[in-house]
Model the fold of this input.
Amino acid sequence: MKRQLPFALVFLFGIFMLFQYFVPHEKSEWVYEFLLDWVVVIGIFALALGIWSLFRVSVDKIKLRKENYGYSYITLAGLFVMVAFGFTHRVAEPWGLYFVWIILSLLCLASLMQLRASTNSGQKKKYLASALIFLVLAIIVAIYDDAWKFYFYTAEGLENSMFRAFFDYILIPILSTMFALLAFFIASAAYRAFRARNVLATLLLIAALVVMLRFCPWIQSGDTAWVSKASNWLMNVPNLAGQRAIVVGIGLGIVATALKIILGIERGYMGKG
Amino acid sequence: MKKAPIIIMALVTALFVLSWIFKAISFQGTEEHFILSGFKYTLAAFLTLAIFSFLYRDNPFYKFAEHLFVGVSAAFWMTMGFWSTIVGNLIPRVSEDLSHFFEVPYEPASRNLFYFIPVFLGILLLMRLSSKYGWLSRWPLAFIVGTTAGFNFVRYLRSDFINQISATFIPLLVDWHGIGHFFSNLSLSSVGQLVTILSNLVLFLGVFCGLIYFFFSKEHKGAFGAASRVGIWILMITFGASFGYTVMGRISLLVGRLTFLFKDWLELIS
Amino acid sequence: MRNKLLLILCLLLVLGGAPTWAQEIDPLDTTAAVDSVALSSPAPVSMVQAKDKGNDHGHAVVISWELSADDSYGDKSVIQYEVFLWKPFLYDTIQTLRDRVGTAKAHLIAHDDDSRDWKKEFRRAQKEFDEIMKGLTEAHAAYPEGGEFVNVGKVPCGENSFKHIGSKGNESGTYLPDYTDFYYRVDAVTANSEIRSQSEIIGPVQCYGQWFNTGRNPVLAAVLIFGFLTLFFVKRARKGSKLYVRPIGGIEAVDDAIGRATEMGRPILYVMGLGTAADVATIASFTILGRVAKQVAEYQTQLIVPTYDPIVMSVGQEVVKSSYMDAGRADAYDKDIVFFVTQSQFAYVAAVNGIMLRDRPATCIYMGKFFAESLLLAETGSMAGSIQISGTDEVAQIPFFIVACDYTLIGEELYAASAYLGREPVLLGSLKAQDYAKAILLIFAVLGLVAANLDFNVFTELFHVTN
Done:
């Protein structure tokens, strides 16, 4: 049961999805949409599993005093604050007490982490006591300052402006800068390709250069217009041929693996235990 | 502790505070809260530079930005997942009271108690945390893998196999009116008959040789080996073209980031 | 004198008015002739047919006709065709109720009006709506009593069919119920929309869903052929027949790289990319991870597997654990070998890059689905001085891996490597099936090329998947 039932389920759902493709009837479509919805819902539960893993790895890093463990506090603080902003919503001005509540909760969390990380009982007691104090204070502030709600996402969209601010001024700058790093990396990658002295790397480089030249404004007209034409030809003919060959190969690889999964021939992903 | 890191840290802190003050001053008189706005812009610029500093080498500022990013983004996705999927899609289909509590439109037409099954499967997935009942988490996994394997099987067979076969059905003799006509109208124009015929031939042979390269159970020797070699050349040209095509897009991303630093933060360009 | 003047005046009047009078009665005058013709209607469409759309989930009817004789031609030129469906007046009540449900719902969400119990109103309106919908089929069957023709769509001149595709949900205004008698009419309309001709009324016609989509027959044939080939070769592999697999650079490199890491006493970083556990590339990656983990366990090297997706993490843990058990080193297994980072693309990259620079892995292996982050990872890995092996089925990312990594498995090679490195030789059977499928494709491509050049469309149509 532990091992065979999952493979039976894989077979059952795999075969259903396969046949469903050929059955356009409303009933089959209904089940199909239903199953795809299920996959999404399960994914959210999995996210909780992931968050727990991140939490545990960070706390263990602190506990074992691993290299750079101090930065794990930043990860955990970011995680907690963003969750707090994501699930609570300030309904009135000013925001003062709300932030006090957040800071008290953070201190409580930090004490709990120290409690887990500490080894001797004297320290443990100290951290337990401070965690309790911060918790009580946080609860008192939350009760006293009743101008906040437990949820924030309504028909109008995101409501907690701090959540939005964290997104706009922390997530977006880092995200777009990471993305922008690609411009430097693509240059160093091109340099690496230059140095590789074999036929294949040279072909790759020449094709890349021809296509890049297309974007140069002074190439588009006059005597050098042929570069632009050559680049277009390269994109539309050999490039298309290569793409097609790769796509067919990948498609067949996916199809074969999917079939092996459905038939229970490929079982590596399920582990053994 | 060495002196250099302390000096750098102090310098960065001083610059941060300075930037905060200047940005706050520049926001004075606007509708926004000037101290908070100054802080937000300075923080965004600091994080941008912290990530860029990675190009030099790993350093405490990069580590700070990285760890903050990991924590905040993990929470962001979890929060969004909860509100959009659980509250947005699941709750309106299972409970009217919960829908009203979360202020989401209740959908009586699609109300279905079968939606408790994925909730149950999701809980089983959490069993992974238990060493005794961890095996139960294979059920939801089996469901997900089976469903998507069946889904992928037919769809890829259609898009990457059948559709690709019919896409290779191209006429080689384009606009053919006999050999005399062909030679009398011979030109190197990119839309001319000769170039079109040659292009179609290259396209067909390219696909043919490219596929030969992907044969695994046959030794690549003799004519087969030669075709396979041509195949990998075509593939390399494809990768080169794709590489060249992406470069420009990436440079525009960098320009976007530099614009933030020099325009929005430092206000050096207008 | 006075009489004379009067006479002249009368004569002038008669002469002046004569042309006007003459114009009115001139039977040869062309302008008058055109006006009288324009007022008559164009030729109506003929042979109107209506039938269920077919190969779909129902709720759709196809109406076809033979073009009007005046289609985009002549003085009475038809510029478009309008399709009308007979609808019972019950639809007005339905729409009112639909609006009531919508309003109640909106108030319930917005909490903007406490003057009424909107929850109650919502339930009542919804109940009434459900009740009245039950009588819809019956109302349609009562044709022609209690209803009228309503415009449901139009097509420009020259087109001789119209697909009336309705919504399947009755909450939508375009809902078209299945197994219900419909009556249609097609109007040929001139530039002056007042001037039109109606066709005869066609009906009753019903729409319904099908249980098999014949438009997808080519896919079914491919499923059967490919399924047969795979089963056949897997069976042969099971019987022990030897199977040749050509050397693939990246596969051999995996073994060497693990040895190198052991010698250097540095860890191996295994990145599974951004795919979910359901992505086939990720599943292929699990198989390779299994093999890597087994060797790592045998050599007692450190393995680091940061993951992007929590389910991938969960499965990865299971796979690595099994491999350690296989290698007889269950005691050395640590749950945190495979861990979750975050489900944000660039945050994940930032973290993995950090690991590369701090832990300096001897080998970085990237297998699975990768997007824009591929180059960020591979370039950082190469800055950190690691040997890098990659494999992905994302066509756009392969060039970056080729440039920055020491070995790259191109597209299908990833699946071949997975089959090759997998624990069971039967997995290789499918490689043979894939090769046969490619051979079939090549044969068809050559035949199709000949057919296309000879305008032999029957052959090319065989591969045409509709819908």
